[in-house]
Amino acid sequence: xxxxxxxxxxxxxxxxxxxxxxxxxxxxxxxxxxxxxxxxxxxxxxxxxxxxxxxxxxxxxxxxxxxxxxxxxxxxxxxxxxxxxxxxxxxxxxxxxxxxxxxxxxxxxxxxxxxxxxxxxxxxxxxxxxxxxxxxxxxxxxxxxxxxxxxxxxxxxxxxxxxxxxxxxxxxxxxxxxxxxxxxxxxxxxxxxxxxxxxxxxxxxxxxxxxxxxxxxxxxxxxxxxxxxxxxxxxxxxxxxxxxxxxxxxxxxxxxxxxxxxxxxxxxxxxxxxxxxxxxxxxxxxxxxxxxxxxxxxxxxxxxxxxxxxxxxxxxxxxxxxxxxxxxxxxxxxxxxxxxxxxxxxxxxxxxxxxxxxxxxxxxxxxxxxxxxxxxxxxxxxxxxxxxxxxxxxxxxxxxxxxxxxxxxxxxxxxxxxxxxxxxxxxxxxxxxxxxxxxxxxxxxxxxxxxxxxxxxxxxxxxxxxxxxxxxxxxxxxxxxxxxxxxxxxxxxxxxxxxxxxx
Length: 503
What we know:
Blueprint: E1 2-5, H1 6-22, H2 26-38, H3 42-61, E2 71-79, E3 82-85, H4 90-102, E4 114-115, E5 122-123, E6 131-137, E7 142-149, H5 151-154, E8 158-162, H6 168-175, E9 187-194, H7 197-207, H8 214-220, H9 225-238, E10 253-261, E11 268-275, E12 281-286, E13 314-317, H10 323-326, E14 334-343, H11 346-357, E15 370-372, H12 397-407, E16 411-414, H13 420-428, E17 432-435, H14 441-445, E18 448-455, E19 464-478, H15 485-502
Parallel strand pairs: 1-3, 2-6, 9-10, 13-14, 14-15, 15-16, 16-17
Antiparallel strand pairs: 2-7, 4-5, 7-12, 8-11, 9-11, 14-19, 17-19, 18-19
Helix pairs in contact: 1-4, 2-3, 11-12, 12-13
């Protein structure tokens, strides 16, 4: 009988979570690099270059790939012949590992988990508790898969109860465009088919733990219906032309992962969960010999890619920018921002709109300013701020008209597309929306030269900061005329893909 010590599980979970915060799986890096090499869309290729450069920087600097260091999900298979040398329950051991990982002073990870989700939504301060799935199996080991799932991709999860005669492929091809770009493609789609509603969702999440191997499958050919579906879905989703960061391009998904389970004769449950450009998961097995620690990959596994802005880039001084200046900016144009910008996310926007509704003065003057939708990681050592990548901008859409109309805000910076309500307000008030690359948080943080909290310090990472930046790269995603590259780019590349097949 194998004896598993309490500290061995705790230490292994903590080590895995630290490890995946700054190391992408090597199979993912190779898949992104392959997609980068074949990409023909300049905007999508540029986005993937930033993702790859950011990943290499994180591997070297041991700092988070993304500022959203995720909600922890654990799949644990406990052998029936295992005995525990522990005073804590297994759930408590896992959560203690999470706690130690996220509070590690050498690489502080952002605490994003809120208790009382339908009420006060109070931060637990240490990213606990994890979501844990147990299975009791034959054997004398403990098999653990650990993942850290960002909110931007998790929020795009989809579930449907199809009729048995319905097409799974048709539903997926119809549904993926409705997910927008907030899940930060290129990534993977995990799909669960069968069982019941909750079983399909768990399978979709577990499927994302598997390595990328779609190219090997394509070479040898499918041997069953699930493998046929993987290839068909991947080809049809990529033919949508959504591309990296939703900017339009050849690669939207890097792999399709499917798990299935027997289901009721009257049912066809299907769940689809995307993994983003900050794919993070690890696997370890405890056999009684001590903790199972991760082995760092060689830095040579990362491609040595440089990102060149080119002579046509527009350099902007945020301290002197005027409404007349932004009217010259073109959709899809690369802009390098320097000067002082504000930050604010959901909680700050909600607070400010409530203050405006009461006729109260805001603690910061937004007139003519740019606000960056970000919740940064706490800094360590000599950093002025930790990884600080963009938040999904559509979550701020409902606040946009109020902010532009009542404060004189000039520009917004985030990730993914804006919805019709926000675009109409941007057009009406002559504002602009800029997109930073999701999955390049550490790279973005290097452009931030100073950071200080100006308002709502009690909100932690949701507080309003002032960043002083130097050459922060962004793309004009919605111009003053309401033209959105997230609408024009995918349409263009979908047609390009169709045209290429007809040649």
